[in-house]
Amino acid sequence: MDAEELFQTLDSQREYLGEWLPFVATTLSLEDSISFINSIVHTSDEKEACVYTIRKGDEFAGIIGAKGIDFANKKTEFGYWLSEKFQGQGIMTRCVRALCQRAFTKMDINRIQIKCAVGNDKSSAIPKRLGFTLEGIERQGERMSNGEFVDLKVFSLLKSDFKTLMS
């Protein structure tokens, strides 16, 4: 991942991306993006993660990843974001589908969870489109950069659900 492209995208879209991504407010320099990348590269075994950049052609478009991979219980949570320029093209839906395929077949994951802030309809549309089940609301599940807490919709997809959807 190119730290400079990551930082430039966040820095140029602070208002747009910062509405739902609390870390945008604390990513103030290229060094912050380098630290983020280093934290992924040096993740400990107990808290594994896999993070991928999303590109369209030669352009950096966003990030998707599985975080807090719990191999003992065969579960993980996906997180993702996409630059405003690339919204509405089906890119993230294809990326989430591909990461589901990888998680279920290559990583032997049984359960994938996605959490989306209530009100972030674009983000919530992706798990809905892919057949995830809305399990409920995690009240005040995330603290935003303004200090306020938002409720999160909790979606899940099981390996058995995915096999049914793909057949």
Short précis:
The chain is an alpha+beta fold and 167 residues long. It contains six helices and six strands; from the N terminus they run H-H-H-E-E-E-H-E-H-E-E-H.
What does it look like?
It is a single chain. With 167 residues, the chain is of the alpha+beta class. It has a single domain (3-166), classed as Aminopeptidase (3-Layer(aba) Sandwich). Helix content is 35%, strand content 34%. The chain has six helices and six strands. It has helices at residues 3-12, 14-18, 30-41, 91-105, 121-129, 159-166; strands spanning 48-56, 59-70, 75-82, 111-117, 133-143, 149-158. A six-stranded mixed sheet has the order 1-2-3-4-6-5, sandwiched between helices. The longest helix has 15 residues, at 91-105. The model has no long low-confidence stretch (mean pLDDT 88).
Features:
167 residues, globular, alpha+beta, 6-stranded mixed sheet, Aminopeptidase
